[in-house]
Specification:
Strand content: over 45%
Shape: elongated
Structural class: mainly beta
Largest sheet: 6 strands, antiparallel
Number of helices: 1
Helix content: under 10%
Radius of gyration: 18 Å
Length: 217
């Protein structure tokens, strides 16, 4: 009899810096995320899910890593970055690299790490595509690859965003089925993820994006 999934949220890096306003200044805080979150559909397969990311108004997503244990994708880490300070003299709580671990122990021997990352402080994830295995029984299919796309922000007034056509991609062996990509609407970037997982077989099956509008403060 299989055990129920045991989910543990691991904060991989947590930093708090209380910078006086005289050090940072209002001029340094140009961008924020509007409180208008919407969720995309799931790339991959919908299932139970865990939400990863910072809920405040100043952090966007730029990097995703995940690990396997016994061929099961059982751990995923999301890295976020402050829109203005890029974590330099950050006066907010940093939940950078929040990880979800799935599995009985859970994920006792994660390895074979893969990652996709956007470089440059102006680039933010806005679109994502999941690759899975392609088994006869779709309930057995699991995460085996990721593609991400960037939106580049120009924070001058008026604010502008440009969508990049190139992708960052990484795959494991047996990446056999690319699912439909999901994307944030115009003007939005990804602020959090929903990681969909199989609660009995204990592996990651799909990902959705939370999207919020970038605006000048």
């Amino acid at each position: 009899m299989k055990s129920k999934v045991n989910i543990a949220v691991t904060v991989l890096a947590l930093g708090i810096f209380a910078a006086p306003s005289s050090l940072l200044g209002d001029a340094a805080i140009k961008l924020k995320l509007r409180d208008d979150a919407t969720w995309t559909s799931v790339s991959g397969y919908s299932a139970a899910y865990k939400t990863l990311g910072a809920s405040g108004g100043f952090r966007g997503t730029y990097k995703i890593r995940w690990w396997e244990d016994g061929d099961k994708p059982c751990k995923l880490e999301l890295s976020t970055r402050h829109l203005n300070t890029f974590d330099t003299n950050l006066p907010y709580m940093v939940l950078d690299g929040i990880g979800v671990q799935l599995g009985k122990k859970p994920c006792s021997s994660p390895g074979n790490v893969k990652s996709v990352q956007l470089t440059g402080n102006s680039n933010w994830i806005y679109k994502l595509q999941v690759c899975t295995t392609d088994k006869a029984s779709t309930s057995k299919n699991k995460l085996k690859g990721l593609r991400i796309w960037a939106r580049t922000v120009n924070d001058r007034d008026p604010l502008s965003l440009s969508t990049q056509g190139s992708t960052e991609e990484t795959v494991h062996t047996n990446c056999n089925k690319w699912h439909s990509a999901v994307a944030c609407p115009s003007g939005k970037v990804a602020s959090r993820l929903r990681v969909h997982y199989d609660a009995s077989e204990e592996f990651i099956r799909g990902i959705a994006l939370e999207c919020r509008t970038l605006e000048l403060k």
